[in-house]
């Protein structure tokens, strides 16, 4: 078993893995490889569950969130709470970036990401496993999760702003 396989981020020794190892683990190609985007999209949308989707989506961002947000939160909170809070913080950072560029309020990503985090937790709790289903169905289900979580976030944003 390679060092990357032995130190998967889900394991307790995830703090020992480098960004390059993490990206290679998630994308199947080294950091900066021209196939990274294609692999990320195929692996994310082809994931067997919505929780699995997030294991492959944007591995550079995921590495930072896992190491600097989720891991510290998990030391003091239940893993489910830490997971959803990590999504909330990621959403807030996306909202802040949007506000910095647009110079206007942007309260979309935070509620959307919280709902997606909750969706991932609920899917895992329900034992969602589409691994034996065709790629197109897995992609459709993962895309549906994104859209279903986006719609109430858009409605909330409209009501607030």
Give a verbal description of the structure.
This protein is an all-alpha fold and 161 residues long. It has one domain. It has helices spanning 3-6, 19-27, 36-45, 50-56, 59-76, 79-102, 109-125, 135-160. The radius of gyration is 16 Å and the shape is globular. The chain starts with a helix and ends with a helix.
* Strand segment count: 0
Q: Helix/strand-derived class? A: mainly alpha
Rg, Cα atoms, Å: 16 Å
Assembly form of the protein: single chain
**Treating each run of at least 4 consecutive H or I residues as one helix, how many helices?**
8
Give the ordered list of helices and strands. HHHHHHHH
Low-confidence stretches: 1-9
Could you say which overall geometry the principal axes of the C-alpha atoms support? globular
Query: How many structural domains are formed by the residues?
Result: 1
- Write down the overall mean pLDDT: 90
Strand content: under 5%
Task: Give the helix/strand layout.
Blueprint: H1 3-6, H2 19-27, H3 36-45, H4 50-56, H5 59-76, H6 79-102, H7 109-125, H8 135-160
Q: Can you give me a brief rundown of this structure?
A:
The protein has 161 residues and is mainly alpha-helical. It is built from eight helices and no strands.
Q: Tags for this entry?
A:
0% strand, mainly alpha, 8 helices, disordered N terminus, 161 residues, single chain
């Amino acid at each position: 078993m390679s060092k990357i396989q032995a130190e998967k981020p889900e394991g307790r020794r995830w703090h020992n893995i480098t960004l390059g190892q993490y990206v290679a683990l998630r994308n199947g190609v080294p950091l900066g490889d021209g196939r990274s985007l294609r692999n990320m999209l195929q692996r994310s949308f082809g994931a067997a569950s919505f929780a699995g989707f997030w294991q492959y989506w944007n591995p550079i961002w995921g590495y930072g969130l896992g190491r600097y947000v989720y891991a510290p939160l998990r030391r003091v909170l239940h893993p489910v709470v830490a997971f959803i809070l990590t999504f909330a913080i990621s959403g807030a950072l996306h909202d802040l970036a949007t506000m910095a560029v647009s110079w206007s309020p942007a309260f979309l990503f935070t509620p959307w990401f919280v709902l997606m985090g909750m969706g991932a937790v609920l899917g895992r709790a329900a034992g969602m496993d589409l691994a034996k289903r065709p790629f197109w169905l897995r992609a459709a289900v993962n895309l549906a999760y994104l859209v279903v979580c986006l719609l109430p976030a858009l409605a909330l944003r409209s009501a607030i702003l």
